[in-house]
Protein: DDE-1 domain-containing protein
Organism: Acrobeloides nanus
Amino acid sequence: MSTTTTQIKVNQNLIRDNVPEFISVDISPQRNNGEWAPNSPDLNVMDYSIWSILEAEACSKPHQSIDGLKKSLVKAWNKIPQEVIDRVVDDFPKRLQRCIDAGGGHFENK
C-alpha cells in the first residue's frame, strides 16, 4: 500500500469517527471510482464558495510579490466570518443531492 493510500485511509478513518455525515469512498486501485467526483468544483467547498470570497478581498489590487499575495490571502481568510464558513459547509448535502440529480454532471446552485 502506498504512503498516499495509507494517508487517505487514515484521513477517512479520522473523519468517519468525527463527522456523522461522512461519505466514504472505495479508494482501492482496482476500482476506477467512477461513482465519486473527487475533483469536481461543484463539490469542493473551496471552489464553489470560499475562493470567490478570497479573490474578491485579496486580489482586488495587484501584489508586488508572491509573499505579498500570500499575506493578503491569509488576511482575507482571517476576515471570513465563521458563520459564512458554517453556512457553506451546511449547504454541502444539498449540493451533493443536486449533483446526484444531475447524474454527476454540472448543475447550477440556485
